[in-house]
What we know:
Layout: H1 3-11, H2 19-22, E1 26-29, H3 43-60, H4 63-68, E2 70-73, H5 79-86, E3 93-94, H6 103-110
Parallel strand pairs: 1-2, 2-3
Amino acid sequence: NQHFNIVEAQLGALKGLSNDEISKCIIAYEPVWAIGTGVTASSAQANEMHIHIRKVISGLFNDGVAQNISILYGGSVKPDNAQELFAQSDIDGALIGGAALASRDFINIAKSF
């Protein structure tokens, strides 16, 4: 139950950037338990963290930066869960892992937007 605190601490590494520099960044979030497991967060869980990331970015910079920065979800995105993930309010795209190795899967994920 420390995931929000851990991600907030990690985002603290961005403190030295200017608004111009941060506006050129893309943030990717992947739950540590999803790395290499094939397990993904529910779309609601993923979106909840993306909302939290925007809140932290707003505190570090401002609301405009937070609303305009791209935040990607990277936890085992597959053709069967991509559309639901991409329908969430604060998920701007995906960091595709193993599914990118199968061209048909990758194409179907891209079609989910």
